[in-house]
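User: Please predict the structure of the protein below. I'd like the answer in structure-token form so I can feed it into my own downstream comparison script.

Assistant: Understood. Taking the following sequence of 403 residues as input:
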Amino acid sequence: MSGPLEQLRIVELGHVIAGPLAAALLSDFGADVIKIEAPNRTDMMRDLGPKAEDGVGVWWKTLGRNKKTLGLDWKSDEGRDILRRLVEDADVLIENFRPGVLERAGVGPDVLHDWNPDLVVLRVSGYGQDGPMRDVPAFGRAAEAMSGLAHLTGFPDGPPMHPGFPAADSTTGLMGALGIMIALFAREKGIARGQVVDLAVFEALLRLMDYPVPALTGANLSPRRNGLRQPMDFAPGGMFRTSDGVWLTVSAGSAETAQRLLRAVGGDALADDPRFATLGEMSRHMTVVFDAINDFVTQHTAKEVEAVFARHDAVASRVLSVEEIMTNEQIRHRGDIVSVDGKQTKVIGPIPHLSATPGEVRWLGRPLGADSRSILRDLGFDDDRIIALCEAGLVSLEEKGTP
């Protein structure tokens, strides 16, 4: 089945996570992505972290999935000409260098739009293309700190904490893919031609961390990290450990579900207590609620808690390890973990699930230059010219195919 984005052509100059993830998300649904790496400076994700059975970094296998790879010194005169020819026929260019790198190489947005006025350019950087912090170097952890996420994660008497995955880079990839599709929609509707999507790595998390700002400015409440509980405790819940050592997260998002939760852990006496008649009242006595849930959970096994909660239609979810994710029946039923024929490494499959045009992982990350020859041939280069470019160090070739 052809993907819904099959006609979408993307040139990726990205590296590490944020830019490459935006391209990978779109490639899952058929976008034709050409990832360009300099022959002498490949994407560090090829080597960072643990290696699969074939010696290739597992992170690269998923970030490079479904992409063609072209080894090209795009900053050289001849390489810049090849980049121009690719851009002329592309819909999107993705880059996540520090501000000014493209301009110094002579391929800033003005040049790119001179080559292709309809090109959508996603520019990901630490703090954005302008402003007083424009030239400050940044990584994902700096963005997590600036967004407020780290400040709200951890225990009240402990240090701020980062989450257990690269939250800033990953959410930036998601937001970058969204920005690309919005710009393409505007182009399709005749609202704008090619435009620049300027995305700072801290901004995607900042957008998702939205509620602390209106809480402070509208209600004069300043959220603080609260350990196993929510920073503002606006609804009952938290993280609790059962008598047999299983961690459960308990939550309720409305007055009705909160009443069911209270009835499950404390019976009618707790649920009908006037202090808990509304979420507003409940929030003023959240320590009592938390202690009641904790007392119940810690005195029962996980199966006992789940059985009682099920009878009351309340929510208690196990905290899954990666091993448990791999065997979870719901995840398996949804087909959310996939493999490629002949490969041991599995990855998370395309999300979201589309009923008529689902995504597909066609291959995992290829070796550097695996597609250089075919890409250059499509641009009109003959084999002698390709070999000459390779011998000059401007192009890298790889004939071994997919690892």
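That's the full token string. Residues 240 and 248 are 5 Å apart (CA to CA).
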